[in-house]
Amino acid sequence: MTLRHQIIALAIIPLVISILAVTTFITWQSANLAKNSIDTFEQNMLKTKEAEILNLTNLALSAIQTIYDRAGPDDEAAKQQVADILTSLDYGKDGYFFVYDYDGNNIVHPRQSFRHGHNWIDLTDPDGDKVIAELIATAKAGGGLHQYKWQKPSTGQIADKLSFVVSLDKWHWVVGTGVYLDDVYSQSAAANKVMRANIRRTFVIVALIAVPSVLIVFTTCMLLTFRERRMADSRLKELMQRVIDTQEEERTRLARELHDGISQTLLGVRYAMDLAGRKVRTNVDDAAQTIERGVEALNGAIKEIRLLSHDLRPRVLDDLGLTAALEALCHHFADRTGIETKIDASGFAGTLKAEASTALYRVAQEAFNNVERHSGASKLSVKLWSDGGRARLTISDNGTGFDGARDGASGGAGLGLRNMQERMAHFRGLLLINSSEAGTTLTAMMPRSANLAAGKQAEAA
């Protein structure tokens, strides 16, 4: 994958995961809340049904209580009278009372007359529940609720039914009534349907809000990323052009120095040697003086070559270190320009890496060039020291100063300042410049990471 595709992938994948996670969480939370609400509603409905059938049972018992209390265990007339009363207690299409004896024989069933006089002890519902046996057992145990499946009179369909039964022990009867729960479950199903519709609506709303928002954030991030990339590419191209321009400037300077200085000097030496040769052949007495002048000119050429070599890469920096190299640079600068130059390196620990020492030396070299060309200074001071293990270099002059924003924008000193800043930035260092009409102070600060490792420091020492 290209860098652009990698950036797009790294931007899209977390956003997609975030959208899915947020949507899933909201959907799950909404479903849980709705399910809890529906469960609570269903439980409340069931409790209402339980209270309803309990009240109906108490009402029926109140209606037969007087007759039951006065009758004996085998009072058939009283039994028939009670059965008639219970048969008549009708409430709605699906509301009725039923009676079974302890053996499972049906005594009262207003909605299913075919059950009268038959034994149903072994009757089971579609779930395998032995309905009549369970109702009898519940009544014998003191009465209570029992849920099972039974045919609903109004529809003829099998539905869930909740019954409450009590026993008439004297007659060995089980009296009960019940309510069908399909209306409760239908309301729960309707609520579930509404819940699913609400969840879908919530999901759509979240999607309509989240997706455009995420797309806006993603688009903004991508635009910023590509803008930064274009800026970085532009800065890289600018830097490459600066490197090329600097190389060309250095080559031009070397060519000019070689042509105008060393080449002319060597040409003079050649003419001197030719003249000396002619004088020797003609036995002229001053041939030795001519040779001496040629030797002097050759010595001058050698000195210029050494100066060029020193400017390119001073041997003293590799052999004796940064302090000695800066001292030599200051002495040569003072000799060449006549500017009074002082250096104080007494507080320098000398623990920098070779590359960092070279960077500080080049910063000083560039600063000296700027002082010579632009400042008009008469005094220059250099201080090299260590502060908390961090190398510091300060160069101050009493020149006219400069406008950093203006001079840093183009040409001349601006290119030199940018070169110094980039050398320091390579080591994550800082370059601070304070310039005014009273002079300019340049401070280069290296971080601890530019120092040699502890073991190498010991070896260098």
Automatic annotation (TrEMBL):
PANTHER family: NITRATE/NITRITE SENSOR PROTEIN NARX-RELATED, NITRATE_NITRITE SENSOR PROTEIN NARQ. The gene is mctS. The chain crosses the membrane at residues 7-28, 203-226. GO terms for molecular function: ATP binding; phosphorelay sensor kinase activity; protein dimerization activity. It is found in: Cell membrane. The lineage of its organism: Bacteria, Pseudomonadati, Pseudomonadota, Alphaproteobacteria, Hyphomicrobiales. Its EC number is 2.7.13.3. GO terms for cellular component: plasma membrane. It holds the Pfam family HisKA_3. Residues 355-450 form the Histidine kinase/HSP90-like ATPase domain. CDD domains: HATPase_UhpB-NarQ-NarX-like. It is a multi-pass membrane protein. Residues 42-133 form the Single Cache domain. Keywords: ATP-binding, Cell membrane, Coiled coil, Kinase, Membrane, Nucleotide-binding, Phosphoprotein, Plasmid, Transferase, Transmembrane, Transmembrane helix, Two-component regulatory system. It comes from Rhizobium etli (strain ATCC 51251 / DSM 11541 / JCM 21823 / NBRC 15573 / CFN 42). Residues 229-257 form a coiled coil. This is histidine kinase. It catalyses: ATP + protein L-histidine = ADP + protein N-phospho-L-histidine.
